[in-house]
Amino acid sequence: MSARPNFPEDPHRPRCHFLPPANWMNDPNGLIQWEGQYHLFYQYNPAEPVWGTMHWGHAVSDDLVHWRDLPIALAPTPGSLDEAGCWSGCAVDHEGIPTLIYTGLKQNRESVCLASSTDGLITWVKKEIVAAPPDDLGPLLGFRDPYVWREDSTWYMLIGTGVQNVGGAVLLYRSADLVHWEYMHPLLTGKAAESGAMWECPQFFRLGDKHVLVVSAIVHAYAMYFVGTYEEHTFTPESQGLLDLGLFSDGAYFFAPATMRDDQGRRLMWGWVREGRGEANQKAAGWAGVQSVPRVLSLQAGELTIKPAPELAALRGDRRQFGPMEIAPTETGLLEGVQGDCLEIRATFAPGADAERFGIEVRCSPSGEEHTAIFYERGYLGVDCDYASLDDAVYQGVLGDRMPLEEDEPLELHILLDRSVLEVFANGRACITARIYPSREDSLGVRLFARGGSASLETMDVWPMKSIW
Ligand code: DQQ
């Protein structure tokens, strides 16, 4: 068990999100529920707070909220296929044995590797397996991030890749024993100009009466989904979208998501929440990378909906309630009695606001030099980070996309603010993840605002969130 330093002086280190004891984390890996407990593995560089030689870190939770660190699960083995890194992958139950299927890196070669545990997911024994890249697609960009599932008695696997001069792709394999893999065909291939040159971290699962394929597209890194039908090992997408609208100059803040089905039949998803500040700041902080809160995916009328797991309500302190109230364009005051850098906010705004832009500001300094606005403006949902911090070293910008509302549809915001992490869920169908690093200790206020007209708040609940550590 690793000791967990608290970084007590660090105002940016999240308190309600999972992150490793120290140093670097990226993708969630190997999500699985085992004997009722949720296991979260993650891409981990235990040596320093920047990306490097990848290990699999490991944590476990009884309630999806509080996590306990377990020893590193996978580390590179000198002389083997993973000697330069244990990259992303998944976990399956193989005849009662927890089994990880992951990417091994040796020089620049990516291979599929396997490890299993017979001591309750603590130590892992590696085993060589046979899964070769296809030779009929030309040179491939990458061959990584296996995602495995079972249909009847056959195992299936997706591998992320890119077909040169075509676009990102996921390759479908099958196996009777998890060891010998036979290539079948691409499950889906994209066009580079539309969805990137290479697809990483595929996830594929049934949701309601459809199937969903999730991929993380690069070079400009963002996570996408396709909803469609899966028949005879052929996937036909019917709709697609971004899993999170928090795109900044370097890609999306929410990337490389992984999913699992739990014993309540829910499809849960975590994603790597990247830093919005450069390497020098990460090194000074001693840590980098956070997991998003667990998000529950479902389908409603064929549309993907994404909501934070209800278990997070366990973190709520005393509730403050506001509304109904009119927000006039002159409204400038901070809400009384509401302050904090770890807050859950649920707010409903009545349909038909005549304001050009309205919403909620968080992390406001008393005179407004710093503030981060979560706003709705004529069909556009956004997070404005331009004034989030007076520190020039952190990324700014306005994140978001169009999210039209029906004429009689209220705007329902569910906001999780956890120091430098901001996750915004709107009407169950749009998420924006952002990183903010206010420089002032007193940037703790919350404000409702409307510009160019007024808006009407039906209700708003605010809770301080307790630390999970
Ligand atoms: N991160 C892993 C890769 C994956 C990428 C390496 C996505 O396996 O493709 O750390 O962030």
| Ligands present | 2,5-dideoxy-2,5-imino-D-mannitol
Number of strands: 36
Overall average pLDDT: 96
Distance separating the two termini: 15 Å
Count of individual helical segments: 2
Report the major sheet: 7 strands, antiparallel
* Beta fraction: over 45%
Structural class, from helix and strand content?
mainly beta
Name the poorly predicted regions.
none
Tell me the helix content: under 10%
Whole-angstrom Rg:
22 Å
Principal-axes geometry comes out as globular
SSE inventory with pairings:
Blueprint: E1 23-34, E2 37-45, E3 55-61, E4 68-74, E5 85-94, E6 97-106, E7 109-116, E8 125-127, E9 144-151, E10 154-163, E11 167-175, E12 182-189, H1 192-195, E13 198-207, E14 210-218, E15 222-231, E16 234-242, E17 247-248, E18 251-252, E19 254-261, E20 267-273, H2 279-285, E21 287-288, E22 290-291, E23 295-300, E24 303-308, E25 320-322, E26 325-327, E27 342-349, E28 357-364, E29 372-377, E30 380-384, E31 398-402, E32 411-418, E33 421-426, E34 430-435, E35 445-451, E36 455-464
Parallel strand pairs: 1-21
Antiparallel strand pairs: 1-2, 2-3, 3-4, 5-6, 6-7, 7-8, 9-10, 10-11, 11-12, 13-14, 14-15, 15-16, 17-18, 19-20, 20-22, 20-23, 23-24, 25-36, 26-36, 27-32, 27-36, 28-29, 28-35, 29-30, 30-31, 32-33, 33-34
This protein binds 2,5-dideoxy-2,5-imino-D-mannitol (DQQ).
2,5-dideoxy-2,5-imino-D-mannitol (DQQ) binds near residues 26, 88, 144 and 201.
